[in-house]
Design brief:
heterodimer; A: alpha+beta; Translation Initiation Factor IF3; UDP-n-acetylglucosamine1-carboxyvinyl-transferase, Chain; Dihydrodipicolinate Reductase, domain 2; four-stranded mixed beta sheet; 10 helices; B: about 1250 residues; 14-stranded mixed beta sheet
């Protein structure tokens, strides 16, 4: 919705999407009624921190927050990048802050090199492991070379204590290339990391056993690394990723309850392992060239491509991506063409046969097509 | 004479070409092809030297690779927009005549008065737009940005004019179009020789300016006010075959050259206030890249705008269709030039134009649009709205409860007068957004609601059953309030209903437009049938008439009348929608089929369903269907009882419905149409409704908010607004992957599963089937399959492996297989031995062409209306752009000779920032460019004036401020202006006024970077003096004024003039005194200097040149800000020189006397021997012995002295005599010599006389 030429939204949900798109397009955005009816109205600490981070990454951003914190006006500046450090509040994971950075980093003036401190794994946000498994390959694909692109976790930090340290570096690009990605391939190996912190080391093995058992029904090439970390808070979990022969990565994760978390029952390590495995299978069931976590990133990069046709095949869209699509329309006026994806081999065949056999490749896929907006990195300069 | 010659002429011999004689002759001297030198003597042409050969090869390769350009994706559309041909030249060189001649050449028509762009179809695939460019710089700049071909007319009698150079310079900065020079007025030069000379000189100059080999045309003169026909024809041919290289700016920005405009402001408004902002419509072809709906645009000379509405029109000047012949006939040679008044006035008969039809008649304008887009309502609406009263608007407003159902009239609203005033503007945004209506309530909030045609039909089949409900309608006004709330729920419901019949349709919703007692359920459909049956007579006409009547009645009658009116209107609305509904029953069926499929699916599907449900309900089972029914009935019951209960029931019901809707939503993801709708249309409005609902709650019911905010509920009412913002998608209920049946569903996703092209298997199966069922015919291939298949072949097929493309194996297939095999072998061979693909350049090129092909093919088959949604208004479309709040001067001061260009801006480009540029003063510009003086820049689409700050990039990358831009050198500069892409070129002018003697282009350059802060620094020296000195510490005063100032510089390096370095330690006291330490003791007489760099503050001033808005006499005289020099000149201010800067004689300069070097003793000791100062004892001067003379000796001495004097005198005398003697002697000699000469002369004369006499006598003889 546009009010006085400023895109205006209500509510705090999708704050990151809105701010990121605003930064990329240079369009100011106003967000009103942030938890207006809540007992604690206004922005939360982590949201403020996010805004601070974006301000840090950019030059000349203008931010207005009203007294109660229920309304934010964000006028973006020029994306700057550079060597930065940011400590994230423990309510949200580092993933919350990393995702917008993934979207912004290629379009900065200088290559981004940021050190983030906080919670690396939690239950709300995609963990740093997951981001590495799922977003990094996508990023690599778009930046063509992975020179200067890295995501390092120097220390793991679990909630509620946090204390993790993650370093993310990313090179800059002036333009991206349009691309077509219609074949997700078949899962050929499964990799993952089992992490524990301040618990008995056998826990890791128990998780591993449970998860591996699930995967071995499909595949033998399953390999998990174990990371027994020392941290401030106890916890354990598993992040697994499936790699296909066409280079797409699907990832999923599960972890134990945090200390002090109110949940009906405590999870056994086996449960965690199985849950992660099942979630990954679910992800495989959903399928597509990228997993549900990287859907927004891919969609964004498709829009930012030159004015050529880009295509991708995705599994069912997550609500987050759906809203992202909508926001993309608001900011870039780019509309995606959404079609059902029919696998080429199935096209010629008779219907009866399909019915007989039933689809064994999971959920039906979507093919998203769009014409890029011809975006160029406006902040990257010349000497 | 001639007669004689004729007579003399003999009959010449004619050779035989055929016949016997000829044959004979041919046989006699048969032609033998000579061997070439190389053939005769191949050895001579063999490699003489390997090195040379190699060099030659390298050279050719170099030349070849130099010709390579970076391949770009060819984005020219199938039907490209007309090519822009600009005619440029000084005044009175014959631009108009040329234009007229060219048009005549192409169309055989003579346009008398050409104004604005003229578009012509010139060939099967080419259209041209001609624009004449006047001599205003503004105009030239704008045209240079859009022209594809420039015809540059040069007056041969005059030579090349400044305008031409200026124009070329502008072109160079913005990406050069093709330039063709035309030398005119050649007939004025009488002399043939001077003509040739002139031609040559001008051609040379022209090629220097452009590129060697640039084409120059010569026009030899006028015949009847026109150029020679064949010269024009040649030029025309050149133009129509010319090719262009895409220019960066134009391939990254959309633009439109406006060839027609309309002022659609309400005339009443203009009457009231002539200077009010106007609503303007601009027309033109899209060029460059696709235009997006509501894109930000810049109109050079006018300002930034946002497109309010955009739609495409049928091409007014279309290319001929299916042309078989070579050339066009007269009918196909269309002309389109609305500004010249061509449309409908002069060439009515033989061409098709868009009829202007009175430019100020909005309906007419609109009706054209309407033709193009099929939507019946909508387009006309916003305009009609202008003339309606609020009541009418209210009456007109409609609400759609279910997206598939009809509209409910809004009568219910004004029954309660305090309710929102709702005005609805139905409009089709032709861009591709779905049909939507805009509702404005009394708080002024605008809400939009998307309407979908494809959903409107859904419940047609349910109609029959529900018709009985209609009779019982009684309106309850109390309920009306809730309509809005319910809308969304109901819309949810209906979605669910449409896709899977959880709730039987009959039971579900019954209501009418604010009629039913059940507030919960509205069943529009019930009425529909009745209406259809009864009011068949009421058709389209009645639709138009009746509501108007109803509207009129409405405000007068409060209760009864209003009810009736409501009813009537409701009915009418229904008819309206029902008509739409009846159109497409097919899609509903489809939905059903889908559902059926779902039902038939096995457990896994069921589970999926569960999962989906779980999303909303947090694990609620699918048995909710029953519950729903129960609750529904509850709801209906409660409505009959008192209000509170009713409210409560509604509450629950609402929640339930919501859950269901959300759950179903996930199920429905598979149906793409739903997804499209969900993402791009409906939910937005749903969201807003929710918001609305919330607000309402705030007014009266607090408990709901709290209830909704249950922690477990993910997709509650607030879900969308204030939910946690996370991209992680966690399926709420996992499928039981331990179960083997579930596992099967993803079996093929793994490499261990079946591969995608499982032809082997399927073939096998097919064959089995064949055997079972005997012969069958493949309908796709048309090939027949017979039962007796060769078993062997099958096996072979299986062996062939997975990659094999499946093909029917039959007798004839053996041959095909062989072919296939050969082909594959060849491919393999090619890939192994041809290095075709290995070249990076070729690879890139192939990739680009592939992309280009995809770009063309992707949206090929789509309807234009839909296509525009996905890819925007592609180049080549003729579009209509509506703008509001246009300055009225645009209309009042419109001048067709100034081009109007709508340049699309990309994201970010509407913002302002500091632009760092590399700039070079033009070598022909006579003045110096001073720092901070304003320049008029043409950058991107824009022309603006901004003060510019020059700087020099130093070796350590510091940008040091400069006072003046250097001549002949690139310097960097910064200015405040619109953010522009890096590498965009620009030209800068100081003066755009007409008729200035000098070259107007001041500088040109390129954008290097954009930022939000400046980086230019300026050197600054702080000077202070010591107040007190304590050994190496000193207190310095007079440098700063306060301790805060000092605090900023703590740690900074200072220095005395003598070079003693120090560092600032800390402030002392409040007046800027500080303590500093030095490497040595300084003196009180020393001056302490602090050298720093201060960032320069740049003025954030940027003023667009609004040349289009100026009256025509001021257009070329705009100046804007003046330069400092100009101001000084105007005000008569003269700078007083600083007396210190005068050059004076240096009066007192102390001579420098170096002191002897003294080496301290200690140092001396430690020095090596050869450096030690050697202590050599000074040699004693020889002392002379004092001579004391006795008198005798004295006498002798004096005598000797006298003698000496005498002697000297004598010698002198002798010398003098000698000289005299010598002189005399020489004189003598000279005299004698003279005498001799005289004598000889005389003798000679005598001889000559004698000889003369002799010869004289001879000659006489």
């Amino acid at each position: 919705m546009e009010v006085n030429g400023i895109l205006t939204y209500d509510g705090c949900n999708f704050l990151r999407q809105r701010l990121v798109l605003s930064m990329l397009t240079g369009k100011p955005v106003r967000i009103r009624n942030i938890r207006a009816k809540d007992a604690q109205p206004g922005l939360r600490e982590y949201e403020v921190s996010l805004i601070r981070l974006l301000d840090c990454v950019s030059n000349g951003s203008h931010i207005e927050v009203n007294i109660s914190g229920t309304s934010v006006l964000f006028k973006p500046g020029v994306l700057l990048g550079g060597i930065l450090e940011h400590s994230c509040p423990n309510q949200r994971g580092i993933g919350y802050f990393l995702e917008p950075l993934f979207m912004l980093a290629p379009f900065c003036k200088n290559p981004l090199d940021i050190t983030l401190k906080g919670v690396t794994n939690n239950k709300i946000d995609p963990s740093v492991d997951m981001i590495r498994y799922s977003l990094m390959p996508v990023m690599k694909k778009f930046l063509v070379t992975d020179e200067g692109l890295s995501l390092k976790m120097t220390r793991r930090g679990l909630p509620p204590g946090g204390g993790g340290v993650v370093q993310f570096t990313c090179p800059v690009r002036r333009t991206l290339r349009a691309f077509q990605w219609e074949d997700s391939g078949k899962v050929q190996r499964i990799r993952g990391v089992v992490f524990t912190s301040r618990v008995a080391p056998t826990v890791a093995n128990r998780i591993l056993e449970a998860a591996k058992g699930e995967f071995l029904n499909f595949l033998t090439d399953v390999y998990f690394t174990i990371d027994n970390a020392k941290g401030s808070s106890p916890g354990y979990g598993l992040c697994a990723a499936a790699e296909t022969n066409k280079g797409s990565h699907l990832s999923a994760e599960a972890m134990s309850n945090a200390r002090g978390e109110e949940t009906p029952e405590n999870k056994l390590p086996e449960d965690v392992g199985r849950e992660a495995a099942w979630r990954l299978l679910e992800e495989v069931y959903r399928g597509g060239c990228v997993d549900s976590t990287s859907q927004p990133l891919v969609l964004l990069f498709m829009v930012l491509a030159p004015t050529d046709v880009s295509k991708i095949v995705l599994g069912p869209l997550t609500p987050y991506s759906m809203h992202f699509l909508r926001h993309l329309r608001d900011f870039f006026q780019t509309k995606f063409k959404i079609d059902e994806h029919q696998e080429s081999s199935l096209v010629g065949e008779d219907e009866e046969e399909e019915e007989e056999e039933g689809p064994r490749t999971g959920a039906s896929k979507l093919k998203l097509t769009c014409v890029g907006s011809g975006y160029t990195n406006i902040s990257k300069g010349q000497v | 004479m001639a007669d004689v010659e004729d007579f003399d002429k003999k009959k010449s011999h004619s050779q035989r070409h055929s016949g016997r004689k000829a044959q004979k002759k041919e046989a006699k001297n048969k032609h033998v092809q000579d061997l070439t030198a190389q053939q005769r003597n191949p050895k001579a042409f063999a490699f003489q030297s390997v090195v040379k050969a190699q060099r030659r090869f390298v050279r050719t390769q170099d030349i070849k690779s130099k010709k390579h350009h970076i391949p770009v994706v060819d984005r020219t559309p199938v039907e490209p927009p007309p090519v822009v041909v600009a005619v440029v030249g000084g005044p009175k060189v014959g631009k108009t005549t040329l234009l007229r001649c060219l048009i005549k050449n192409y169309t055989n028509q003579r346009l008398s008065d050409i104004q604005g762009p003229v578009t012509i179809v010139v060939g099967k695939k080419r259209r041209l737009t001609f624009i004449e460019v006047n001599n205003d710089v503004n105009c030239m700049i704008d045209i240079a940005k859009v022209a594809d071909i420039v015809l540059m007319i040069i007056d041969a009698t005059f030579g090349i004019e400044m305008e031409v150079f200026e124009f070329l310079e502008i072109c160079r900065a913005h990406g050069s179009p093709r330039v063709m020079g035309i030398l005119n007025h050649l007939d004025m030069l009488r002399d043939n020789k001077s003509l040739r000379k002139k031609k040559k000189a001008l051609k040379h100059r022209f090629q220097v300016e452009l590129y060697p080999g640039a084409k120059l045309f010569y026009f030899s003169g006028l015949i009847r006010e026109e150029y020679l026909k064949n010269e024009i024809k040649n030029l025309g041919r050149f133009i129509s075959v010319m090719k262009f290289r895409p220019l960066t700016w134009r391939t990254s920005h959309p633009y439109v050259i406006v060839d027609r405009y309309e002022d659609i402001t309400n005339p009443e408004r203009i009457r009231e206030e002539p200077k009010c902002d106007r609503d303007v419509v601009l027309y033109g072809y899209v060029r460059g890249i696709p235009f997006q709906q509501s894109q930000a645009v810049h109109i050079p000379g006018c300002g930034d705008f946002k497109i309010k509405d955009m739609s495409f029109l049928p091409d007014p000047c279309p290319l001929p269709e299916h042309l078989k012949k070579r050339s066009l006939n007269a009918k196909e040679r269309l002309t389109y030039a609305p500004m010249s008044g061509v449309g409908g006035v002069m060439y009515d008969k033989d061409a098709v134009y868009i009829d202007l039809g009175g430019s100020h008649h909005p309906n007419k304008v609109k009706s054209q649009v309407k033709e193009s887009d099929d939507e019946e309502e909508g387009v006309l609406q916003p305009l009609l709205d202008l003339q309606k009263t609020t009541n009418e608007k209210q009456a007109q407003s409609r609400i759609q409860l279910f997206s598939h159902s009809k509209f409910i009239a809004n009568e219910t609203k004004y029954a309660n007068e305090e309710m929102d005033t709702v005005e609805i503007t139905d409009r089709t945004s032709s861009e591709g957004l779905p049909l939507f209506e805009t509702v404005t309530d009394n708080t002024g909030r605008v809400r939009r609601r998307a309407l979908f045609n494809d959903n409107l039909e859904n419940n047609v089949d349910e109609l029959e059953s529900d018709d009985d409900d209609e009779d019982g309608e009684t309106s309850e006004e109390g309920e009306e309030e809730d309509i809005e709330e319910e809308e969304e729920e109901t819309s949810d419901e209906e979605e669910e209903e449409e896709v899977n019949d959880i709730i039987p349709p009959k039971k579900k919703f019954k209501n009418d437009s604010g009629v039913e007692s059940d507030s919960e359920d509205y069943d529009l459909d019930s009425d529909l049938l009745d209406i259809q049956q009864q009011n068949l007579a009421l058709k389209v006409d009645s639709e138009v008439k009746e509501p108007a009547a109803a509207r009129k009645i409405m405000p007068l009658s409060k209760n009864k009348d209003s009810d009736i009116a409501q009813k009537i209107q409701g009915i009418l609305e229904k008819i309206n929608t029902s008509q739409q509904n009846t159109k497409m029953p097919s899609t509903t069926n489809k939905c059903k089929i889908l559902e059926d499929d779902d039902d038939e699916d096995d457990d896994d599907d069921e589970e999926e369903e569960n999962k989906d449900k779980g999303l909303s309900n947090g694990g609620k089972s699918s048995s909710s269907v029953v519950q729903d029914k129960g609750e529904e009935s509850e709801g209906t019951d409660s409505s009959t009882s008192d209000e509170d209960e009713d409210e409560k029931g509604k509450e629950e019901y609402r929640m339930e419905m919501f859950k269901q809707a959300t759950s179903n939503f996930y199920k429905n993801q598979s149906t793409v149409s739903f997804l499209r709708k969900y993402i791009y249309g409906e939910i937005k409005e749903e969201e807003e409704n929710r918001l609305e609902e919330e607000e309402e709650d705030f007014g009266g019911l607090f408990q709901r908010t709290s209830k909704v905010r249950k922690p477990g509920e993910l997709y509650s009412v607030h879900a969308v607004m204030d939910d946690t913002d996370t991209s992680r998608y966690i399926p709420p209920v996992l499928q039981e992957w331990g179960d083997s049946e579930v596992r099967v569903t993803v079996m093929d996703c793994f490499v261990t599963g079946d591969w995608k092209d499982r032809d082997a298997q399927t073939l096998l199966k097919m064959d089995d089937e064949d055997n079972l069922y005997g012969d069958f015919e493949d309908l796709e291939n048309g090939s027949k399959f017979s039962a007796q298949t060769d078993q062997k072949q099958q096996e072979e097929e299986n062996k062939e492996g997975k990659d094999e493309v499946q093909e029917p194996k039959k007798e004839k297939s053996a041959k095909e297989k062989l072919l296939e095999k050969k082909r594959r072998l060849k491919e393999m061979f090619d890939s192994e031995y041809d290095d075709k693909g290995s070249d990076h350049f070729d690879n890139l090129k192939a990739e680009m062409s592939q992309q280009a092909q995809l770009n063309r093919a992707e949206f090929e088959g789509l309807d234009d209306q839909l296509r525009v949604q996905y890819e925007g208004f592609r180049p080549g479309l003729y579009v209509r752009m509506e703008f509001s709040n246009f300055p009225c001067e645009f209309i009042t001061n419109f001048d067709a000779s100034y081009p109007v260009i709508v340049g699309g801006l990309l994201e970010n480009e509407t913002n302002m920032g500091f632009i760092r540029v590399r700039i070079k003063v033009h070598r022909w510009y006579p003045k110096i460019l001073k720092n901070r003086d304003p320049l008029i820049l043409s950058l991107g689409w824009r022309r603006f004036q901004s003060p510019i700050y020059y700087a020099k990039r130093e070796d350590n990358f510091r940008l040091r401020s400069l006072k003046y831009a250097r001549k002949y050198l690139h310097v960097e500069a910064m200015l405040w202006g619109p953010v522009t892409q890096v590498n965009t070129g620009f030209v800068a002018l100081q003066n755009i006024t007409d008729r200035v003697p000098e070259f107007r282009i001041a500088a040109n350059g390129v954008v290097l970077e954009t930022d939000k802060s400046s980086k230019i620094v300026k050197k600054l020296k702080f000077i202070g003096t010591p107040e007190k000195i304590l050994k190496k510490t000193a207190f310095i005063k007079d440098m700063f004024n306060s301790e805060t100032e000092v605090a900023k510089f703590v740690g900074a390096k200072v220095q005395t003039q003598s070079g003693i370095r120090g560092i600032i330690k800390k402030f002392k006291g409040r007046n800027g005194l500080y303590r500093a330490t030095f490497e040595d003791m300084i003196k009180m007489s020393d001056v302490v200097v602090l050298k720093t760099w201060v960032p320069l503050e740049l003025a954030k001033h940027c003023f667009p040149v609004r040349s289009l808005l100026l009256p025509s006499n001021e257009k070329a005289a705009w100046q804007g800000m003046r330069t400092v020099a100009q101001i000084k000149k105007d005000k008569g201010i003269k700078a007083l020189p600083n007396p210190d800067s005068f050059y004076t004689d240096i009066t007192s300069r102390r001579e420098y006397i170096p002191l002897p070097l003294r080496v301290p003793k200690d140092l001396q000791k430690s020095l090596p021997y050869h450096l030690k100062p050697k202590v050599t004892p000074k040699a004693q001067k020889e002392q002379r012995v004092v001579v004391v003379k006795n008198p005798e000796e004295v006498q002798m001495d004096t005598f000797m002295k006298r003698l000496k004097v005498m002697m000297e005198d004598r010698i002198e005398k002798e010398e003098r005599d000698k000289v005299k003697k010598k002189q005399k002697f020489q004189k003598d000699i000279a005299e004698r010599e003279h005498m001799r000469l005289v004598r000889e002369k005389r003798k000679k004369a005598a001889i000559c006389k004698y000889k003369g006499k002799k010869s004289g006598s001879k000659s006489v003889v």
